[in-house]
Structures are given as structure tokens and as C-alpha cells.
Protein 1
Amino acid sequence: MTETLFVTGASGQLGRAVIHHLLASEGVAPGRILAGTRDPSKLADLAARGIRVVALDFEQPAGMAQAFAGVGRLLLISTDALDRPGRRLAQHHAAVAAARAAGVGHVLYTSMPNPEDSLVPFAPDHLGTEVALRESGLGWSILRNAWYQENLLMELGAALERGQWTTAAGEGRYAPISREDCARAAAAALAGKAEAGRIYNLSGPELLAMDDIAAHASEVFGRPVVAVKLDEAKRAGILVQAGLPPFIAPVLVASEANIRAGKFALLSDDVRALTGRAPAPLAATFAAIRDAGRAAA
């Protein structure tokens, strides 16, 4: 298979990791990979390795269609445009339309678990993009990424210091996954492993409640940590006090409410199906942070 593989958002953490795994894939030469970004200067290191870097702006539809010309398989990584309602969905609609205009053979999209039944404010962006893909006439696959394990690292240092990890998730369980495992699965899917017309649920290997997460932190770092369950208003106040932007705190609290309601309680073997290996457990991610001396990150 010699199709051209395009990765949007290539200067972001997930996009860069996907390209790293593509380069390590058998049969994927650098010349087959296109990396899209608003600022190509940020990807000079990838260009030096033979990857074609393309200027890509989700709010410039004509430029997107030109960038996608001749692309066989496209990984559409959801954008971070959460500053105003509707902006991200409009960007995704424009990208799907540009892919259709350019004759892209297959589009893969990074979504979220159960966007059709979610308390998370940005879930409609993902659901709307999935619907647009299904109705586009393009070949498509959807990668529903579970909540990243790395999202927990924002509060890990404070939790270790205080011995308490506050949450609005109650007793709810979910299966957090490492960004690296999502990237590995996305690279495999983009390189040809993903079947058309299929949704892949990319989850970690175990369903965890915050009591479990606190216990993992205690065991790995050798410091007592307990989960403290709060209502949503108190949890939001703690997050804002900790310095999170006021528009981010409600998103995190809503995500925890989604966990509490059981709407993220999804366990899947799709990562192994795509990559041939099981995803890393949270304890392993914590251990890597400990060994790198970054527990306060």
C-alpha cells in the first residue's frame, strides 16, 4: 500500500506522536506522510526527516481542499477551538467538505466515548463531526479516544502534596488511556488497519474509580493519597482557585459528572486489535512520571 497519509494538527502532542509511530511502521516511508499545521516552521524537524509539511488552516476551506489533493488516507485530529460554541464543529465540517472536494479516499476522526449521550459540553462537536462523516459519501473510521491518563497529571503533584485528590466523579468508573497508546492506535489505523465504516473505542485496560486512581498514586509514589468526593460547585471552585482558566474548570467538572453518571464506563480491546499490544495501565504511566522525576507536573 503506497497511499499518501495526511495528519492534521501535526504540531500538537497527539499529531506528533502519531507521526512518530508512522515513521516506526513497516512500509511507511517518510515521503508518504504529510503533516498539516498552521505554522510549518514548528515542524522543521519533521521536514528534515523527509516528511512533507503542509500549511493547513481549518478556517481557510479553499486552502484545505488544496492541501488534501491526492491524499489517500486522512487523520482528522479534532481541533482545540473551544473558545466559542460552534467554532470547532464549523472547522470540522469545513475539513470534511474539503476532503470530499479533494477526493480523499478515507477519513479517520478522533472523537470521544459516547458523544450521543454525554454531559460534556463539547460532545456535540464530536457527534456532529461523526454525522458529517457518515453523510459525506467518503470512506470513514472513527477513533473514540477515552479520557487521557495525562489529564490526571495536572493535579497529581498537588494531590501527592496534600494527600487528597478531590473529584466530582463520585464512585463512577472509566478507563483512562495514555496519549501514546491513542497515537499508536491512530497511526496503525491510518496506515491501513482500520476498517471503513467502523467505530473504534480506544480505552485503557481497566475501569477505575477515583479511589482506585488515588490508590495507584499512593502505591507508585509511596505517599498516602485518598479521593475526596465533592459536589460540582465545590469542585469547580477548587479548580479555579488552583489557577485553571474559568472556562476550563466547568469542562473538567462536567467530564467528572459524566464519569459519575456512568457515561464513560466503556472498556474495549480495540487498541490491541489495531496495534497488537495492550494499552498501558495507569500505574505504568505514573511509574514513568516518577522515574522521570516529574510527579509535580
Note: The radius of gyration is 19 Å.
Protein 2
Amino acid sequence: MTALDAVSLVVPRSEIHGIVGRSGAGKSTLIRCLTGLEQPTSGQVVVAGEDITTLRGADLRAARRRFGVVYQHANLLDSRTAADNIALPLEIAGWDKAERDARVTELLELVGLTDRAGNHPGQLSGGQQQRVGIARALAARPEILLCDEPTSALDAATTGQILALLKELRDRLGITVVVITHEPSVVREVCDAVTLLGDGAVLEQGRLGEVIADPTTRLHRELIPLVEPAPDGLARLQVALGHPDSPVGSIDGIISLLRHEGIEADVAAATVETVAGRRVGRLLVELADAALVDRARDVLDHARLHPEVAA
């Protein structure tokens, strides 16, 4: 069985790149290949001009230090304080105590936990533990931060805080961030570009603002979910909002367009948000009569709004 098949991925320096896909798509295997924990049967993994698939022993270990990894669960050592957990990779790397202490102090301030330095994991919230995990991943000054489902164990408010921290770290440190996630909201909130994996292959990829605004892409459907209609049998159409090629961009404009064509329509529901500087979303249009569906689809198709019949 092939875990990854002809995957081609380029992540520019200082970009936040999301990798999405369902369970079994190959996301975790890709992370292992990127860090040299898994040796691909063919191809290259080039980091800062160096192909790490050719490295062995001490050279490979040195290359791995370019990466910091943040996991779904922080996996902190209960017997150590927050400060001591952050210091652990520096101890292993042989830093002397004065250097370790200075670096840990710097990192605690960076992740907003200066006052929690002496707390053990059991005394920290889930979000605070994840902040310690991020600080630990940054301890040895990596060039790339790999985040494997970093927020899936957190509530919505804490997720927002962690994503804001990742963005701030990228802006302050210039670090490259790769986020593996199955949560569309994470990609919409923090990523500059996104890749969709499926069955070990790249299905689509591109700049977030471009793929999310184009309803013909699979990524649009992955990242902008359909509006769920009520099961009452009314005639409804799903319409994508924010497509740059459509002359009609607003909800009012779409309804006015249909009514201008003699099709009685109204808004049943809508989801709209700003992603990568674009207003995007989905509109659920309710029609007065099921007999109007085909006509309404023709009108909306002509306006490049890509209507779909809502089940």
C-alpha cells in the first residue's frame, strides 16, 4: 500500500501552510517524511537547500533540529514545572544552565506564561499546557514549526488564542509554520496557503484567498461548509458567495437578481465571513415554488454563482 504518492509541496519561508485531509489521507506520514523520521522510497525532502533524505547519523540529527513539533496533546512531564519542561530539549542538546535559564525566560515571556514558570502541568489549563508545548518546540530556535492537530483538544475560545499566538510567532520570529488539521476553521483563521491531501496524493493546493473564493474547487467545499437546510421540503438552492468572477457579490444582490427575473425568492440562511481579506460564504436561497428551481439555477449559473440544489 502506498502512503504518499507523488506528493509535491513547496512552502516558502515564513508562510503558514495548512495541510488538510480526512483520516488516512497521509497527513501524519507526510510529517514523518518532512522530519526525516520516515524515509521515502523515492523523491526529495529539501529544507533550506539541503535534501534530508540523503542524510544519516549525526547529519540527520542536525537537520532535524531545524524542526520544532507541536502535537495535539502537549505531553508535558508531570514531574517538571513549565520552565523545566521547556528546558528539557536544551538539556538534551547540551546547553549550559545559564544559557538554558535565559532562553526559558525568553520563551515564557514569548508565549505569555512568565507567571506560570513554577507551575506543574496539573496546575495549568489545556491552553496553557499547549503554550508550554509550543515554547518547548521553539526552544532550540528551529526554522520550521510543525503543528500536528494543535487545537483539536481545545475549546473554541482557547483555539482562537493558540492560533493568534502561532500567527504572532510567525510575524515576530519569521518562522515557517506547517499546520496539519482536519478543522476548516483553523485553516480559515491562520493559514496563508493550503494543501488538500486524499489517499496519499495532493488533490488541490493554492493560496487561501484564491481557493476559498472559487466554489469550483474541492478546497472551497472543504473550508466553506454547506448551509444545512431544515427538513421541511421547501425548494432551496445553495449559492457560493465571494467568487471574484461573479458580477453579483452580495446577498441582497442575488435575491434582487432572481426577483428581477420574476422568480420569487428569499434568504433561508447564510454563512458569511472574511477570510484572507475576502468576504466569502454560502447562501441558502428559498424559492416560492419547486417549479422555479430549474429557472433559478439557469439565472444563477449565468451569474457564475454555481448553484446547487439543497437536499
Note: The CA atoms of residues 242 and 280 lie 5 Å apart.
